[in-house]
Amino acid sequence: MYLPFEVWSHVFCQLPNNSQTQLMRVCQFWRDIAKATPQLWTHLHIGHIHQFDDPTGLRQWLEKSGECPLDVVLKIPLGVTDLRPTLVLLHSQVRRFRILNIAVPTPDIVDTILSSIALSEGKCNGNTAPLLEELCITIDEMSNRRADEDQDYFEHAFYPSPRLRRLTISPLRMPPPSSKLLSTVSAFMIVSGPDDQYSGYHSFSFQTSHSLDYPRVEVLPHLDEVDVTVPGCGLDILQCLEAPTLRSVRLDGSREDGHAEDWDDEGVTNVSASLKRLPQRAPRIQRLDLHRIEELQADTCEWLFSQTDFAHLEELRIEGSTMTDEAFTQSTSLGPCLHRLELIDCEDITGNALIAYIEARQPSGHAGDFQLLVSGCPGVEDKHLAELSRFVTVERLMISA
């Protein structure tokens, strides 16, 4: 049965991104179709040493992709001696980048890459990236450079990039406040590398200042969500965000085994202070996710549930905290916007406190549409959930072993 070229081309485009080589080997007909279908060649993964030693294959791949937008993964392996030929090729294609994911073993390589592909040839202006929507830069190994050191390469990197919405970055490569990258970003992720726990970046504050006098403010006028997975210096960065449209915040304070000593009094104080600074610079937060922020101060828990500052908070998720019943019993007010509460692995919370909290919402009519999810909280028993279900929608998350 004869199928027109367009049909074969469409079928090929439905295959996994790594199918191109196999298609080229089947027969001359398939090879001709694959070579003439630029959409097949829009996902580019550069991560093997031979690709850097001889960029001929990379050049051919780029030629086959025509003028289609590109999704590029650039992963620099250990042992690469010369990045220049590869970076020269990529520099000429930045105008087509839709997604750029850079993964490097050490921070200095980030500077090499950005100076080579993110700036114009004169290094004074950005290399235009009109299609760029997502930029991700991760670093495996940290150094002693602090998160508040401005990076000149970010000043004009990839500018203009009017479609950039998602920025994922290491805390050691934060763009300076004047960076034009930040002007369009709506999703901001601050991620940790695998060695962060052992490089001095697990301490909770570089500033060790409860007054929160961070040396600069990062203005992100269109920011909608932020995810801070760096358990130390990311907290400092979180408190310096000026984000009037921010709606969703996730703070991950996970620690590797053996780092429990980092939860000292100063660290706990800084966590609480940073959380209380959030609504001052981001007044419209609707969802707050606190993951493994173990030692929250009692007054901070009470403040969260009272919603005196998070006036628009609708969803609150707390996992792995040592918060106690006082968070509920001492709440001074009941925020009318809060309609979903998730408590996971909070071992010191009891069902009686939850019942009292929900009953307190009843007179004001705030409990009817309330949703409660409970998992790994031994103090909340089935009888408590049965009682709670009279007033609110109750979910019990079952986690498989």
What does this structure look like?
- The chain has 401 residues and is of the alpha/beta class.
- The protein is 28% helix and 17% strand.
- The chain contains 13 helices and 15 strands.
- The chain has helices at 5-13, 20-26, 28-35, 49-53, 56-64, 84-91, 107-118, 233-239, 265-281, 298-306, 326-329, 351-361, 382-388, and strands at residues 43-46, 70-75, 97-104, 134-139, 166-169, 187-190, 218-219, 225-228, 241-242, 248-252, 287-291, 315-319, 340-344, 371-375, 393-396.
- The strands form 2 sheets. A 13-stranded parallel β-sheet has the order 1-2-3-4-5-6-8-10-11-12-13-14-15, with helices on one face.
- The longest helix is centred in the C-terminal third of the chain and has 17 residues, at 265-281.
- It is elongated, with a radius of gyration of 25 Å.
- 33% of the residues are buried.
What general outline do the C-alpha atoms trace? elongated
The average pLDDT is 78
**Whole-angstrom Rg:** 25 Å
Largest sheet strand order: 1-2-3-4-5-6-8-10-11-12-13-14-15
- Cα end-to-end separation: 51 Å
Order of secondary-structure elements: HHHEHHEHEHEEEEEHEEHEHEHEHEHE
- Secondary structure tally, helices: 13
**Which class best fits the helix and strand makeup?**
alpha/beta
Helix content: 25-40%
Spans where pLDDT lies below 50 across 5 or more residues: 146-150, 195-214, 263-267
Q: Largest sheet at a glance? A: 13 strands, parallel
- The strand count comes to 15
Percent of residues in β-strands: 15-25%
